């Protein structure tokens, strides 16, 4: 599985094995390219390593989240989180960015939420629409065929709704909603907020010899039967079957190696086993190390021919870093009290969601912020762990004894949660650069983050807070936790939502972008990026589906250009 | 599958539920075996990491006052809640780099003893049930409590949360609620129509 020394030059070296590296490996290996993939973490096989069906009471601290395992003991992320041992990052004064990394085959696709929303036509041309941010060099129509391919491969459920700027896709049937979701949907009807089947990369029907979902509700633990999308199960396993893909794990890439002609010759990495430096040579280099790691590699690739790093003649590598705006409210709905027990697990995530509904109001200048958000919901009779039924005094007024025990049974399952996920507009003050002094344990200089929200994001978070409280009120409920002006409306910290995008932006001008419209470096024609670093904007549509579609399109372009001899 | 079978997936029940899916059955069997191994592993008696012997005894008494045994399930101490709380305080100390939570809990336990001794001449665990009730009634109802007791109300809220989440996330608590998931479901049908009928009625059609 992990052949170490291979003197032959490869057609392609791919850095990273997550959504972006995975789709490139899949498409390129099936087209016959000989590929070496480098993954900084270890091997991962969900069939053997997933903790599916295990009980929190058998885990330390009832499987609670920790710095080591932020999403809980059974989360699929074996080594990673906002802190990775021996791999620090630093902050500019006043910034509080959080950088999540998953050091494992498949990266963050093993545990992510599987929310799979297409960007819409407006999302590719946001500057043209409201004068803020920047337009993409491509349109929705350029990417639509690749959204089709991506959805057909990874498997996405959903429903055709025909909503504005919320394109429908090639959907598997959606799972029927849970009881509390139908209650919320009814409240949303009163408020004229659309509440429709969600769109998640989870199989409600068997496709491509992958099993259908068995509805245990714990997709974050990774699926032992491959019923949800992850890069190892869906991209890498079939790619390895072609015999064209070699995967090296524990390979921490430090830099791109340039030839005297200014083209990439390959990449250098530290073999984590013995801390030796290795180089892989290839005709084409694909970076998919994750948005910020990709920028870090480029910035650390300094040479006389590239004094500011590779592909950085524009000086824009690392710039215009974005995350998603998050804010949350939880509530209690008495209508859900004391219902007959039922299994409300379903798929690992919401069955219904609310896409953004104020495009026209924004266009008409009637909203105090520029861009939209969608609403994610949770609640119900969820898997009990640390924190279950906490804060009961806010509902019951307090108490103890047999009466408390009876009352707790009645209120179990009646809590609901709302989380907004909104678009951040790129700004000059949010970027990453190489820290002048600090290094990681492999000797690689680390990133220093600068991050700032603008009023557009803060006022969007305010709107989220107000809207979620209105929905709870419309459902006859009580707000349990919320945030006001003093808490900046509960806006998340940069990086907290784990949707970093934009650090090697694409564009149609080499002076104002790092990559062209095919995610090919302007300065280095055999260097491509297939993670979220090429994004020009960060619509409220979670990045992974667009990473997959865009990476597929880039891979098709690489095949075409290799055939034409244009990358030599 | 019944609620008092929280291990969830026997191989036979699973295959009945999902027909033929060998990979899933294998995964389920592996998890069932792992769960069972964890349960049956001979464990030495728990040694408290945070509490001393007297506190340990008081914690058990207080947990059971909060969640006593009833017709449906055992008491909090029988469900391992004192062990959960002791371990949780130790965990938070390491995780948060502060012992604020452990101090709040220990401070509250001290206050219960001091107050009980002042009023009844005995520490809290040794006081009569009516005396214990008298003290708890002072701090168990946040809206009704005296303003000067706010620290002990906060302590009790926190202690109640630890007891409640420790109990209802235990094997006994999962069966009590009952939580009916964490298992393979053959066909997902959404909200049970009988439950939806109740909800519709409550929502007013």
Radius of gyration of chain B: 22 Å
Mean pLDDT of chain A: 97
Query: Biggest interface and its residues per chain?
Result: A-B, 73 and 70 residues
Form type of chain A: globular
CATH topology of the largest domain in chain A: FAD/NAD(P)-binding domain
- The named CATH superfamily of the largest domain in chain A: FAD/NAD(P)-binding domain
Largest sheet of chain A: 7 strands, mixed
- Please work out how many helical segments of chain A DSSP would assign: 13
Distance between the termini of chain A: 29 Å
Q: In summary, what is this structure?
A:
Chain A is an alpha/beta fold. Chain A has 13 helices and 20 strands.
Walk me through what this model shows:
In chain A, strand 17 and strand 18 (445-450) form a beta hairpin. In chain A, helix 1 runs parallel beside helix 13. In chain A, strands 1, 2, 9, 10, 11, 12 and 20 form a seven-stranded mixed sheet that branches. Chain A has a six-stranded antiparallel sheet with strand order 8-14-15-16-13-19, with helices on one face. Helices cover 23% and strands 18% of the residues of chain A. Chain A has 13 helices and 20 strands. The longest helix of chain A is centred in the C-terminal third of the chain and has 21 residues, at 543-563. With 205 residues, chain B is mainly alpha-helical. Chain B folds into two domains: 11-43 and 179-203, no CATH class; 53-169, no CATH class. Chain B contains nine helices and no strands. Chain B is globular, with a radius of gyration of 22 Å. Classes of the chains: A alpha/beta (568), B mainly alpha (205).
Question: Characteristics of this structure?
Answer:
heterodimer; A: 568 residues; disordered N terminus; B: 205 residues; mainly alpha; 0% strand; globular
Topology, pairings included?
The complex is a heterodimer of chains A (568) and B (205).
Chain A: E1 10-15, H1 19-30, E2 35-38, H2 46-49, E3 80-81, E4 90-91, E5 101-102, H3 121-124, H4 126-130, H5 140-154, E6 156-157, E7 171-172, H6 179-191, E8 196-197, H7 231-241, E9 245-248, E10 251-258, E11 264-271, E12 276-287, H8 291-299, E13 325-332, E14 352-354, H9 359-363, E15 373-379, H10 393-396, H11 402-411, E16 415-422, E17 431-439, E18 445-450, H12 455-474, E19 478-481, E20 527-529, H13 543-563
Parallel strand pairs in A: 1-2, 1-12, 2-9, 4-18, 6-7, 12-20
Antiparallel strand pairs in A: 3-5, 8-14, 10-11, 11-12, 13-16, 13-19, 14-15, 15-16, 17-18
Helix pairs in contact in A: 1-7, 1-13, 5-13, 6-12
Chain B: H1 11-18, H2 22-40, H3 53-66, H4 81-96, H5 100-120, H6 129-139, H7 150-168, H8 171-176, H9 193-203
């Amino acid at each position: 599985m992990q052949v170490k020394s291979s003197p032959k030059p490869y057609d392609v070296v791919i850095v990273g094995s997550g959504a972006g590296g995975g789709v490139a490996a899949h498409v390129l290996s099936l087209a016959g390219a000989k590929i070496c993939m480098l993954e900084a973490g270890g091997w991962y096989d969900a069939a053997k390593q997933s903790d599916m069906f295990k009980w929190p009471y058998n885990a330390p601290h009832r499987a609670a989240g920790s710095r080591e395992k932020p999403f809980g003991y059974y989360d699929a992320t074996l080594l990673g989180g906002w802190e990775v041992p021996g791999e620090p990052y630093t902050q500019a004064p006043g910034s509080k960015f959080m950088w999540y990394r998953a050091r494992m085959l498949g990266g963050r696709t093993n545990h992510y939420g599987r929310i799979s929303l297409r960007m819409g036509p407006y999302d590719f041309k946001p500057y043209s629409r409201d004068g803020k941010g920047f337009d993409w060099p491509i349109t929705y129509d350029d990417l639509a065929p690749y959204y089709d391919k991506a959805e057909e491969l990874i498997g996405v459920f959903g429903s055709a709704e025909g909503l504005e700027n919320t394109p429908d896709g090639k959907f598997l049937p959606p799972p029927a909603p849970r009881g509390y979701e139908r209650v919320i949907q009814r409240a949303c009807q009163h408020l004229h907020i659309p509440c429709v089947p969600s769109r998640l990369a989870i199989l409600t029907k068997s496709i491509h010899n992958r099993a259908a979902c068995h509805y245990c509700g714990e997709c974050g633990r990774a699926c032992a039967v491959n019923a949800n999308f992850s890069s190892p199960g869906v991209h890498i396993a079939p790619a390895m079957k072609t015999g064209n893909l070699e995967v090296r794990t524990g390979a921490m890439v430090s830099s791109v190696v340039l030839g005297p002609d200014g083209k990439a010759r390959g990449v250098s990495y530290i073999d984590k086993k013995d801390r030796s430096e290795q180089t892989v040579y290839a005709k084409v280099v694909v970076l998919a190390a994750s948005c910020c790691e990709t920028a870090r590699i480029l910035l650390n690739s300094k040479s006389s021919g590239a004094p500011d790093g590779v592909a950085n003649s524009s000086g824009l590598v690392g710039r215009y870093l974005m995350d998603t705006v998050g804010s949350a409210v939880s509530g209690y709905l008495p209508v859900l009290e004391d219902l007959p027990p039922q299994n409300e697990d379903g798929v690992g995530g919401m069955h219904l969601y609310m896409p953004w509904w104020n495009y026209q109001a924004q266009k008409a200048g009637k909203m105090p912020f520029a861009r939209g958000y969608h609403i994610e919901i949770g609640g119900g009779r969820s898997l009990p762990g640390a924190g279950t039924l906490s804060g009961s005094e806010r509902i019951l007024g307090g108490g103890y004894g047999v009466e408390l025990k009876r009352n707790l049974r009645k209120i179990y399952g009646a809590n609901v949660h709302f989380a907004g996920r909104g678009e951040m507009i790129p700004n000059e003050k949010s970027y990453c650069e190489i820290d002048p002094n600090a290094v990681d344990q492999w000797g690689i200089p680390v990133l220093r983050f600068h991050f700032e929200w603008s009023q557009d994001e803060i006022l969007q978070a305010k709107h989220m807070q107000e809207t979620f409280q209105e929905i709870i009120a419309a459902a006859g409920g009580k707000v349990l936790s919320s945030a006001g002006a003093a808490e900046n409306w509960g806006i998340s910290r940069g990086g907290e939502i784990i949707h970093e995008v934009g650090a090697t932006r694409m564009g149609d001008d080499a002076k104002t972008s790092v990559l062209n419209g095919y995610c090919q470096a302007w300065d280095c024609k055999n260097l491509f990026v297939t993670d979220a670093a090429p994004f020009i904007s960060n619509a409220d549509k979670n990045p992974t589906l667009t990473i997959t579609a865009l990476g597929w399109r880039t891979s098709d372009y690489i095949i075409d250009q290799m055939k034409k001899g244009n990358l030599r | 599958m019944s609620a008092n079978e929280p291990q969830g997936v026997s191989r036979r029940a699973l295959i009945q539920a999902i027909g033929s899916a060998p990979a899933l059955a294998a995964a389920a069997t592996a998890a069932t075996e792992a769960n069972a191994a964890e349960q049956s592993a001979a464990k030495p008696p728990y040694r408290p990491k945070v509490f001393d012997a007297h506190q340990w005894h008081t914690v058990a008494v207080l947990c059971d006052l909060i969640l006593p045994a009833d017709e449906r399930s055992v008491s909090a101490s029988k469900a391992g809640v004192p062990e959960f709380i002791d371990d949780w305080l130790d965990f938070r100390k390491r995780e948060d780099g502060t012992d604020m939570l452990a101090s709040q809990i220990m401070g509250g336990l001290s206050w219960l003893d001091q107050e009980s001794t002042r009023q009844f001449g005995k520490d809290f665990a040794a006081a009569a049930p009516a005396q214990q009730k008298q003290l708890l009634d002072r701090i168990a109802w946040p809206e009704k409590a005296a303003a000067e007791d706010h620290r002990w109300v906060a302590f009790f809220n926190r202690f109640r949360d630890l007891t409640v989440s420790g109990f209802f996330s235990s094997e006994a608590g999962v069966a009590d609620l009952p939580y009916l998931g964490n298992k393979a479901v053959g066909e997902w049908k959404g909200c049970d129509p009988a439950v939806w009928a109740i909800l519709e009625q409550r929502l007013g059609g």
